[in-house]
């Protein structure tokens, strides 16, 4: 591997004869396989050699964050400040790749109860993985707070739950989020009470503020802003071609970001002009006609810019490691471009494009049932919020002649 990166014999010998040569070469081969450029690989090889030369005989097999900091500090006087920062970012994934990275395990309070709740959500309720993960995260936060404040789950009172909302959630949650947390805790306590882990009356005692259906407006972007957003990716680079295809899928089909990230090559049927989407919440496939503009954008990316990787996901990271993008990456792509365009909206992410799609369909005269089917809603109640942004209809109402009545 070193012979591929360097041409000077003395340089090759220094890398080959340095400490942990096999471990360094394994990691370099791995990065080459996932698309790292030659320039990046050369810099990584130099950094790994520098770090390896500072390792003590007891370091291989077990390196902690504290120990890595000590290694970087010992190198810092000999290198530029920026180089020292890069060493940290290069050495940490190398140690993780080798299995040498040691992170102290932070105990989770009431781990058995949390595991039981997760198993119940998966096995008995059959909730989607994204819902399970979200509820697990929120429940773990509450249980961690209980442990840190010295509260026992079996002796928990309603005053303790109130204290959680006041001390922990007051500066973290919005009104809507607090309602979701209250709902989650009721479900958790109801389940925990079935096997005696908490008081039986605790779940029923948790009340949340009243929320009314359709009390909020959807945060749809103006369609002119949607056009500007898509036009911002009109270039021919790999990133522009990828981002344009992603944003068209979000705006034209109203997909969720996780559905875009989960799109696979076999889901795009150019021959039959069809797009197969695995709906995350309905957990069933949905087939759409492949709109010409979306088909063109997907073809330009897949055939002309998508890197040749073994993964079947359509959208791939633009930098090494060349792995499928995550749903978080889809959010960052849209949010970054909206902020660059200085778009003013309550929410600057993929869901704003989903709302824009629904509002556009409503303005074009589609029924709520048709819009709900397009968005993958289970019922029209999820779609009815968009009736509040039918600006044409609202203007007609505002211009209605009341016959002199004031």
Q: How many helical elements? A: 19
**CATH homologous superfamily name of the largest domain?**
Intergrase catalytic core
Radius of gyration from CA coordinates: 27 Å
Q: What CATH architecture of the largest domain would you give?
A: Orthogonal Bundle
Which sheet architecture does the biggest sheet show? 3 strands, antiparallel
CATH class of the largest domain: Mainly Alpha
Briefly note the structural class of the backbone: mainly alpha
The count of DSSP E runs of length 2 or more, i.e. the number of strands, is 5
Mean pLDDT: 82
Q: Please tell me what the overall shape is.
A: flat
Low-confidence stretches: 388-406
Note the run of SSEs as H and E: HHHHEHHEHHHHHHHHEEEHHHHH
Distance between the termini: 84 Å
Number of domains: 3
Assign the CATH topology of the largest domain: hpI Integrase, Chain A
Strand order of the largest sheet: 3-4-5
In helices, the fraction of residues equals 55-70%
Strand content: under 5%
Brief description of this entry?
This protein is 56% helix and 4% strand. A hairpin with a 4-residue loop joins strand 3 and strand 4.
């Amino acid at each position: 591997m070193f012979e591929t990166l360097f041409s000077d014999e003395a340089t090759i010998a220094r890398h080959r004869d340095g400490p942990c040569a096999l471990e360094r070469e394994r990691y370099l081969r791995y990065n080459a396989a996932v698309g790292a450029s030659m320039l990046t690989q050369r810099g990584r090889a130099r950094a790994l050699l520098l770090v390896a030369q500072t390792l003590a005989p007891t370091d291989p097999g077990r390196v902690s964050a504290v120990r890595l900091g000590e290694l970087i500090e010992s190198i810092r006087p000999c290198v530029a400040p920026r180089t020292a920062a890069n060493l940290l970012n290069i050495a940490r994934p190398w140690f993780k790749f080798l299995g040498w990275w040691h992170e102290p395990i932070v105990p989770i309070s009431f781990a058995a109860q949390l595991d039981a709740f997760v198993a119940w959500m998966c096995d008995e309720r059959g909730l989607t993985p994204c819902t399970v993960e979200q509820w697990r995260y929120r429940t773990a936060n509450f249980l961690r707070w209980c442990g840190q404040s010295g509260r026992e789950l079996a002796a928990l009172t309603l005053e303790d739950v109130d204290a959680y909302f006041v001390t922990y959630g007051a500066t973290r949650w919005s009104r809507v989020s607090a309602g979701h947390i209250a709902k989650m805790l009721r479900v958790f306590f109801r389940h925990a009470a079935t096997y005696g882990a908490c008081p039986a009356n605790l779940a029923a005692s948790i009340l949340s503020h009243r929320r009314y259906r359709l009390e909020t407006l959807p945060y749809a972007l103006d369609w002119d802003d949607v056009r500007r957003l898509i036009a911002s990716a009109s270039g021919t680079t790999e990133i522009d071609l990828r981002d344009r295809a992603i944003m068209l899928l979000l705006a034209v089909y109203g997909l969720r970001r996780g559905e875009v990230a989960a799109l696979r090559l076999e889901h795009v049927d150019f021959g039959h002009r069809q797009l197969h989407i695995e709906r995350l919440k309905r957990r069933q496939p949905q087939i759409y006609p492949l709109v010409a503009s979306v088909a063109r954008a997907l073809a330009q990316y897949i055939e002309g810019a998508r890197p040749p990787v073994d993964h079947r996901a359509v959208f791939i990271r633009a930098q090494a490691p060349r792995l499928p993008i995550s749903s978080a990456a889809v959010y960052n792509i849209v949010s970054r471009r909206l902020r660059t365009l200085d778009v003013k909206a309550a929410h600057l992410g993929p869901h704003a494009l989903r709302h824009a799609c629904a509002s556009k369909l409503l303005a074009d005269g589609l029924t709520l049932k048709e819009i709900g089917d397009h968005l993958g809603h289970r019922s029209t109640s999820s779609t009815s919020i968009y009736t509040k942004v039918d600006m044409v209809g609202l203007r007609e109402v505002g211009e209605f002649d009341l016959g002199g009545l004031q």
